[in-house]
């Protein structure tokens, strides 16, 4: 008798899960065109980080129309909506980023952006060249789907629409770090967080995932080498910062190749700019060097910081110069919680189909979703946005002025976000 009761209970649970999946699928199909329309509107009206006023207004109005508790003005323009389910359970978070990039669009689409701005003294276009317009539209769609299931939800869902993922304007804070600093987790801290990013590196309808370190940390360094100006014909009368800088480049490049255990996780240090001097026969007083650090291990990250400082200052000193080193910490490593990733993999497969869910390699790009992942177990996945007939090796990448996101993939992304939330809540009923 006991076994029969258990079997009946399991049968009801399976039936309930099937019905929820069918309901989500039906609703996603119903609002597919609405999601596309939202996306096109956001694409034609892009806004840079911390300036997403119009976008935030549309999002807030939509969430309020769904009966949610809505907070606005977080981290400048951030919006958080809380959907309270009818049944007890945990809180889970879904996140979309809203900002565009200072890129002049060259993609041939009817809803092309013609917006312009002056960015760091240069007149340039504004474009959703990384697909954040699609993220906002898909999460708005998921919010509508899930609000219609409110009576079935075992817990709450936080919808976080975040500004400035691409970085805040100079002199301002922003993004996920500022949203956390301003307390979005204080009142309703989620047990888990999920994010999704469209990518040109996968064909439409496919979902890419990776357990553990998935995206690199991204940090910037500045090294200023101070010497003593002299005539180029008599270098011994001064201290040559250019010669010292050249040795520093070599020394810093040896840090990853000779001093960091890269069998643990890979790392990259790259110089992007070296500037010094104005004339062929004058040894300048100083040289400025800037670069980027990428890696997948937080301990390695700390070691690299220290070794860059040690290497630069000691090499400069050995030639009679001095070096000032400043490390500007950016985004941490984006780490997908292994247990949570394994738990949610079936949800991704329900959304896209078993054959369309693929394990991805590490990505040396960075994401500020990583800040949420430091606070709660999280999973960040990728949605393919390149039409199936196009070659992934030649298609325009994210951040390109030719970047294009195939609209047929949006239904998969909307369904994936919805299922991640519902399946997590169902698996952690109170």
UniProtKB/TrEMBL annotation:
The keyword Hydrolase belongs to this UniProt entry's keyword annotation: yes
Cofactor, free-text remark: The Mn(2+) ion enhances activity.
Pfam families: M20_dimer, Peptidase_M20
Similarity section: Belongs to the peptidase M20 family.
Chain ranges of the Peptidase M20 dimerisation domain: 220-317
Organism whose genome encodes this protein: Pseudoalteromonas distincta
Full protein name: Amidohydrolase
Domain of life according to the entry: Bacteria
Gene3D superfamilies: 3.30.70.360, Zn peptidases
Residues where Mn(2+) binds: 130, 132, 166, 197, 399
GO molecular function: hydrolase activity; metal ion binding
Cofactor(s) annotated in UniProt: Mn(2+)
Alphabetized NCBIfam families for the sequence: amidohydrolases
Signal peptide: 1-22
Keyword line: Hydrolase, Manganese, Metal-binding, Signal
Lineage, highest ranks first: Bacteria, Pseudomonadati, Pseudomonadota, Gammaproteobacteria, Alteromonadales
């Amino acid at each position: 008798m006991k076994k029969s009761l258990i079997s009946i209970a399991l049968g009801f649970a399976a039936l309930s899960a099937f019905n929820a999946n069918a309901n989500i699928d039906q609703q996603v199909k119903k609002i597919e065109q609405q999601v596309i329309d939202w996306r096109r509107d956001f694409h034609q009206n892009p806004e840079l980080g911390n300036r997403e006023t119009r976008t935030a207004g549309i999002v807030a109005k939509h969430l309020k129309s769904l009966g949610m508790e809505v907070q606005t003005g977080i981290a400048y323009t951030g919006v958080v909506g809380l959907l309270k389910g009818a049944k007890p359970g945990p809180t889970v978070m879904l996140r979309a980023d809203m900002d565009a990039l200072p890129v002049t669009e060259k993609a041939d689409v009817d809803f092309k952006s013609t917006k312009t701005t002056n960015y760091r003294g240069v007149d340039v276009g504004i474009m959703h060249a990384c697909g954040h317009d699609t993220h906002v539209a898909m999460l708005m769609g998921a919010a509508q789907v899930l609000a219609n299931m409110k009576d079935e939800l075992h817990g709450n869902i936080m919808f976080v629409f975040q500004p400035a993922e691409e970085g805040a304007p100079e002199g301002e804070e922003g993004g996920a770090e500022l949203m956390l600093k301003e307390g979005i987790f204080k009142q309703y801290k989620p047990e888990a967080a999920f994010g999704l990013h469209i990518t040109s590196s996968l064909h439409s309808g496919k979902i890419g995932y990776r357990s553990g370190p998935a995206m690199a940390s991204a940090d910037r360094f500045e090294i200023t080498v101070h010497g003593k100006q002299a005539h180029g014909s008599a270098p011994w009368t001064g201290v040559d910062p250019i010669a010292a800088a050249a040795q520093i480049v070599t020394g810093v490049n040896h840090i990853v190749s000779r001093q960091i255990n890269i069998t643990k996780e890979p790392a990259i240090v790259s110089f992007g700019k070296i500037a010094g001097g104005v004339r062929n026969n004058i040894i300048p007083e100083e040289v400025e060097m800037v670069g980027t650090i990428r890696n997948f291990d937080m301990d390695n990250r700390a070691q690299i910081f220290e070794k860059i400082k040690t290497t630069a200052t000691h090499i400069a000193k050995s030639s009679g110069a001095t070096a000032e080193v400043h490390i500007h910490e950016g985004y941490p490593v984006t780490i997908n919680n292994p247990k949570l990733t394994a738990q949610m993999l079936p949800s991704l497969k329900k959304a896209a189909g078993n054959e369309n869910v693929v394990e991805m390699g590490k990505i040396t790009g960075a994401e500020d979703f990583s800040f949420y992942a430091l606070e709660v177990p999280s999973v960040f996945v990728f949605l393919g946005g390149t039409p199936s007939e196009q070659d992934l090796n030649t298609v325009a990448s994210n951040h390109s002025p030719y970047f294009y996101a195939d609209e047929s993939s949006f239904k998969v992304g909307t369904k994936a976000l919805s299922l991640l939330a519902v399946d997590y809540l169902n698996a952690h009923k109170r």
